[in-house]
Amino acid sequence: MSKNNQILLEEIIRQERDDLDETQNLDKFFEFFSIAQVLKSYELSYDEIEAGITGESHDGGADGIYLFVNGDLVKEDETDIKGKYKKNVDIEFVIIQSKNSNSFSEDPLLKLSRLSRGLFPLDFDRNEFEGRYNSKVLESFERFRDTYISLITKKPKLKVSFIYASKGIEVHPNVLRQAEDLKNDVKSLLSDATVEVDFIGAELLLKLVQARTNDVYRLKLSENPMSSSGQVFIALANLMDYYNFITDENGNLIKHIFESNVRDYQGKTNVNNEIQETLENPGNEEFWWLNNGVTIVASAASAPGGKELIIHNPEVVNGLQTSSEIYKYFTSTIGKGVEEKRNILIRVIVPETEEARDKIIRATNSQTPIPKSSLRATDSIHRQIEDYLKPRGLYYDRRKNFYKNEGKKPKDIISVSFLAQCLMSVILQKPDFARARPSTLLEEDSAYNDLYHKNNDLHTYFILAYIGRTVELFLKETGRYTSSEINDIKFYVLYASCAQLCSNVYPSNKSLSNLSKDSLTVTLLETTSALVYDLYKVAGGNDKVAKGPKLIELLKDKLREKKL
């Protein structure tokens, strides 16, 4: 039976590789594939998975590194972590080793022990490890350290998870002993941490692959729902029944039912504390009297049995804070085992159009201080970009993971942040900003209004998305650059390519809109990537150089020498 699991898994991997990325060899694809499976519950996008993969060399045995706070991925440009989280903070640092082999061995664990002893001390000096470990590894441990220290007054629960994935069937006792040594190494440095080493072999990987995502949910109601014209329902649900609706069979929060553009907001006010106080200390007032409730949009909804709603593809677009506090309450010692009689107000709406859906999201969140970047993708310009790119073979993922779940290839999916980086790099000539601030570019009104003005030609968005993705794929396929180097230079190569195609160091929206995708040649990519890489290495060749102002000025000088 176990051998059969290996055979089936190998066939699945080959088919997935052919469907998603036929250019990668099987060893490299297994790394991506296994990481995507073991982190499936976190609902990461393809770009987020790729960002955590550390590269082919000097990785210390860590093929992928990911940091989560309260289940949310912490990105490299996260700011104000301390202000974002108030209490009940859970930090999980996940380090993944992935081997396309039929066994588990001691060597990767020995490497991880050495890595841990060097980088888990909170006073580690990055400069001492330059050259031994690549930039992505060092950045990841710096991010962990800074996040942990900034949240230490919140009394966080810290978990360090090592995951060793392979096609193995059994784990030899010597490997298990080495895993214990690894745990002890980390515990000696982080005494308050829970440390786990999990082995994910052929059987478990197969189960993860075959697990299906549910898209039809049932919500038990306290009374028959009210319904107006169309598929719109207003109802009261018992707090415990709503908790069951938003959690899986293991009691984990179902992340993908929370609308992706607003679900990561934690809030800087005392709203969460007030909700938790109301839950923990019930008075004479009903819970739904004191709370605005939850708004859910869906693709279909019905109430065939009276006191129950059947909801297809639900998305909680308002009420994240309420939902999060309800989840925390029922998973805490206070809420467990309590006979719950209180209700929450639920609104379920099936919008007729995408425009209506976006209006609902904006309207229901208008009274909450949601960061601007969280609601940007509901602007009409982003729907127009999505509609323009789709018939041209690119899929603008303004609803996170929509096209991933549709089975589109990673190379054809353009995330909101990736397009913003491309626009910032070329139109504003700021590839340094694009590299340093990938997830916060949409927060500044002035830059946003320039980049997404209603009068901008939609073809500009397509051509920059196309060239940006082509540059990224070219740099990977050459095999000349490490993952860290590609991450550092790709937006500089994009800018320099567009500047040369437009014959101008300052490419305009109009000149970019006149380009066709056939304008980009392999020769141009070869010469431009070589130019950028040489300047990058001369300047220091690390992430600090890519994020600083010096490299773009050097590049502009070189382009001016070409009489642009």
TrEMBL record:
Family matches, as Pfam families: AIPR
Residue intervals of the Abortive phage infection protein C-terminal domain: 258-478
Protein name: AIPR protein
Source organism of this protein record: Paenibacillus naphthalenovorans
Lineage: Bacteria, Bacillati, Bacillota, Bacilli, Bacillales
